[in-house]
Design a protein that fits this description.
Layout (H helix, E strand, L loop, with lengths): L9 E5 L26 H15 L4 E5 L9 H10 L3 E6 L6 H9 L4 E5 L5 H8 L4 H15 L5 E8 L7 H10 L4 E6 L21 H19 L9 H13 L7
Parallel strand pairs: 1-2, 2-3, 3-4, 4-5, 5-6
This protein binds S-adenosylmethionine and iron/sulfur cluster (SF4).
Length: about 260
Amino acid sequence: MKAPTEHLKEIEILTNRYCNLKCKFCDAWTNPIDDKSVLTYNQLKSSIKSIHDWLKKPMRLSLAGGESFMRKDLLEIISYAESLQFTTSVITNGTLITEEIAKKIISSNLSAITFSIDSLNPKIHDYLRGVSGTLKKALQGIQFINKHKIQKPWVSLAVVINNLNYNGLLEIVQFAKNNNISSVLFQPISPIFFGGKTGWYDSKIWPTNKNEVKNISNAIDLLIKAKENGESKIFNSIQQLTGMKNYFKEIDLKKVS
Ligand SMILES: C[S@@+](CC[C@H](N)C(=O)[O-])C[C@H]1O[C@@H](n2cnc3c(N)ncnc32)[C@H](O)[C@@H]1O
Ligand code: SF4
């Protein structure tokens, strides 16, 4: 492989395309678990080795899905990547991280783990994630990692801003501060995810009038203000957050199915 790599900082690999949840805004869960397009353990290992031999320098390796923890061999893949000096991270819905798995994650040497938490209100989070009990399991997963880790992995959160959760965004930042969580990344809800259906399962999560857009925009303003006042837990830059406000302002209010 011959390509300029000096600016390359991170590589993302999709470990699978299926999931145990049924999020309203994602359609990974509509794919079958025996999806033949998913890389096997040997294929994944040899891809990681090829990337290593190609780059010849330490690099971030982000493992995404689907829900990566549905793979029984995920921890072996992480250990392998870490042994090749990759700084490995996984993003997860957190529901499969029991205390036993948390200990194994720590032993695998994983560098960073991001939990998707859209709201600390179980009614909202579980509704968005399509399965009840999801928030409780994800928060337990965070506690298990924090309980057993010595240094690694860094724990962070990812939040999808939408029409149902904008009131609770700062509460999530406060939760991060109280629970030894390094940062919170905010992502605006996107109309197309995972390259599947382009419509919406439920219009409640997408703003459908100017008033709702204004409410979301005001909530993002609170994040910007917190950031201006030195809130270091918010990962996004002020420019990104401002761009998000513009994104919501310009969205097609009728884009729901
Ligand atoms: C596709 S998920 C895969 C990892 C894992 N299953 C999870 O939910 O964290 C990766 C990230 O994308 C986010 N996401 C999913 N659908 C989205 C959408 N329509 N717009 C914005 N972010 C979305 C998820 O909340 C998660 O933080
Ligand atoms: S966002 Fe994550 S947890 Fe939700 S359906 Fe998609 S892959 Fe699964």
